[in-house]
Amino acid sequence: MDLLTHVLVAYLVTFGIVGPQPQYLAAGALAGGLPDADALLFPIARRFPIFRHHGITHSLFGVTVVAVVGAFLAPLILPGSAWVYFLVMEVGGACHILQDGFTNFSVPPLLPFSERRLEVDADRAINFVTLVVSSVAFYLLLGVERNHVGPAVYLYTVYGLMAFFVAYFAIRLTGRLVIGRHRAALDPAAVPVPTGNPFTWLLLAERHANGRVRTTWARYVLGRGLVDGPHAVEAPIEATPHSGRPTSAAEALEWSYPLARARSRILEMTYHFGEAYETAAGAWTAVWYSLEFTMFGRASAVRVQFPADGGTPEVKSAFYRPLHPAY
């Protein structure tokens, strides 16, 4: 989850516990964002890995330490109960852990006692839906409405945001639970991957054998089932000798995949898919897309263009829009 969403959700949960008490709301919201301050600890993390990003600060132990310190310091800054400060900061930090664990970005909630990680894989680490909603919410709450509208309007906004996030997380979790029933239709080892649309998922399977990689995917829509696929593409990991220009889409994919994989680490790190087409001039273009790094209908990809005269192919990485949209 993005930082704004972490802070906003912690703010809303804190509001649900203590109501409109500014000092506690500020403490809970702050605690909701503090675990990501571990990004500032990277010099220490090189020597002590426990301080890495998504390390000890994303554990119940780390959250509790912050809550205890906050319970001691906060009353010195703003009047209030040390116990309530501890409660809202503990809950705010726990919200952060749960939200990260809800995504495909795992966290170790039991550090330093256990390395066991929490990863529900029901949402993306950064989702533009929640990012936009959180950005607009802060603009409304802290800009448009603050000291400009009556308490009733403010309450309606807060309760509306609460309802949105409850519905959003419920839809994501439902999709994650239901899509598992469709694995057998694709591959018993298939992995569900959330997309930017909370109702749409990709079901993916990847096999490596004899120096080749084969990716199979299907698109699932909550309430409708599998609506597209399965589609499959296969190519060699290492470049194979060839000359001239491709004569088919399959050949263009075969020749381009090693070049694309060498150009972008994203392809190596994520599930991916390829498509190829011939231009009017007789050249062939093959594009390999990440099925996980996507936004606004485009995907992180590598495009390999084979000239019509059989010359050196041109390899370029960028965000491209697939001809056959998988998102």
Helices and strands in order:
Elements: H1 3-18, H2 22-33, H3 42-45, H4 60-77, H5 82-102, H6 128-144, H7 151-179, H8 183-186, E1 191-194, E2 200-209, E3 212-221, E4 225-236, H9 249-263, H10 265-269, E5 272-278, E6 284-295, E7 298-306, E8 314-320
Antiparallel strand pairs: 1-2, 2-3, 3-4, 5-6, 6-7, 7-8
Brief account:
The protein is 43% helix and 22% strand.
Tell me the major beta sheet. 4 strands, antiparallel
The largest sheet has its strands arranged as: 1-2-3-4
Helix content percent band: 40-55%
Low-confidence runs (pLDDT<50, min 5 residues)? Answer: none
What is the succession of H and E elements? HHHHHHHHEEEEHHEEEE
Please report the number of helical segments. 10
Distance between the termini: 20 Å
Strand content: 15-25%
Structural class: alpha+beta
Morphology call: elongated
Radius of gyration based on Cα positions:
24 Å
Provide the residue-averaged pLDDT. Answer: 88
Count up the domains. 2
Total beta strands: 8
Can you offer a commentary on this structure?
This protein is of the alpha+beta class and about 325 residues long. It folds into two domains: about 5-145; about 185-320, no CATH class. The protein is built from ten helices and eight strands. The strands form two sheets. A four-stranded antiparallel sheet has the order 1-2-3-4. Strands 5-6-7-8 form a four-stranded antiparallel sheet. Helix 1 (about 5-20) crosses helix 7 (about 150-180) and helix 4 (about 60-75) packs antiparallel against helix 5. The chain is elongated, with a radius of gyration of 24 Å.
